[in-house]
Amino acid sequence: MPPEAGEVLVMIHHQARDEAELAAVREAYHVVSRRLADVPGMLANELLQSALDPSALTVVSRWADLAAFQSWEEGAGHRADTAPLRPYRDTRLSAPFGIYRVDAAY
Q1: Please, is 7 exposed, middle or buried when counting C-beta atoms within 10 Å of its C-beta (0-12, 13-18, 19+)?
Q2: How far is CA 91 from CA 34, 47, 69, in A?
């Protein structure tokens, strides 16, 4: 089912430089996902691996709206909850994240 108009997708880009880091990113994703399971307004998240560059991974989280995401992001636990993934941020990019509001979907 596609996202609804008004929902927000947050994409955070990561890099795994070798198989050990790839395993570490995957494990960190599961740790963070369990921590965020009951965050109000967070609808889902997934870990994507590039089909063209296996070192590139993106965590996509889906939020009910921008206010829900911002409320969590500004909260006290945000940085601690996501800390396991932070060492793998993709520094090859000028901005390792993007925040997008769904405008239309089918």
Answers
A1: buried
A2: 25, 18, 23
Q: For residue 1, is it within any domain?
A: no
Of 90, 101, 106, whose CA–CA distance to 64 is shortest? Answer: 101
Query: What count of other Cβ atoms lies within 10 Å of the Cβ of residue 55?
Result: 16
Q: Which residues contact 48 (CB under 8 A, 6 or more apart)?
A: 57, 58, 59, 60
User: Mapping DSSP to helix (H, G, I), strand (E, B) and coil, where does residue 73 land?
Assistant: helix
Tally of structural domains, the chain: 1
Domain that holds residue 91: 8-101
In a domain, 2, yes or no: no
Q: pTM, whole model, 2 decimals?
A: 0.92
Domain presence at residue 43: yes
Q: Model confidence over 54-94: pLDDT tens digits?
A: 999 999 999 999 999 999 999 989 999 999 999 999 999 99
